[in-house]
């Protein structure tokens, strides 16, 4: 008997003003118990295998505070370092990436690597 596949959907909704600038972002992930949760910024990258390139969508609302954007980027870089380690097991490059994250936080005066 063939194994039944499970499908999961993640959706994003972007509300734009008259100049097509994001005013509101919400996202839903039914399997994660998330429905229309507000967000102020999002970064999405997908790998296009056919063209061997990364495609991305970067959006933030016009009321996203600059100080929060800096923290968002720092936390994203830390998470990318962790994901890189899980995906590649390259400890040396992961350590280099984490060093950069510490440097990034220091230069932005985020108050520590855990910000």
Summarize the structure.
The protein has 115 residues and is α+β, with helices and mostly antiparallel strands.
- Strands, total number: 5
**Structural category:** alpha+beta
Cα Rg? 17 Å
H and E order? EEEEEHH
Uncertain ranges: none
Question: What gap, in angstroms, lies between the N and C termini?
Answer: 50 Å
Helix fraction bin: 25-40%
Described by strand count, sense and barrel closure, the largest sheet is: 3 strands, antiparallel
Strand content is 25-35%
Number of helical regions:
2
Strand order of the largest sheet: 1-2-3
Overall description:
This protein has 115 residues and is an alpha+beta fold. The chain is built from two helices and five strands, in the order E-E-E-E-E-H-H. The chain has a three-stranded antiparallel sheet, with no helix packed on it. Strand 1 and strand 2 (22-29) form a beta hairpin. Helix 1 runs antiparallel to helix 2 (91-107). The longest helix has 23 residues, at 66-88. The radius of gyration is 17 Å and the shape is globular. The chain starts with 9 loop residues before the first strand and ends in an 8-residue tail after the last helix.
Observed structural traits:
single chain, 115 residues, alpha+beta
Helix and strand layout, with pairings?
Layout (H helix, E strand, L loop, with lengths): L9 E7 L5 E8 L4 E6 L1 E8 L4 E8 L5 H23 L2 H17 L8
Antiparallel strand pairs: 1-2, 2-3, 4-5
Helix pairs in contact: 1-2
């Amino acid at each position: 008997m063939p194994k039944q596949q499970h499908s999961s959907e993640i959706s994003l909704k972007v509300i734009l003003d008259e100049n097509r600038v994001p005013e509101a972002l919400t996202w839903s992930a039914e399997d994660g118990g998330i429905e229309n949760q507000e967000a102020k910024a999002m970064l999405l990258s997908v790998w296009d295998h056919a063209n061997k390139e990364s495609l991305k969508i970067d959006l933030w609302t016009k009321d996203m505070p600059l100080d929060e954007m800096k923290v968002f980027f720092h936390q994203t870089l830390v998470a990318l370092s962790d994901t890189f380690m899980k995906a590649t097991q390259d400890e040396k490059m992961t350590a280099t990436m984490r060093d950069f994250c510490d440097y990034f936080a220091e230069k932005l005066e985020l108050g520590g690597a855990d910000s």
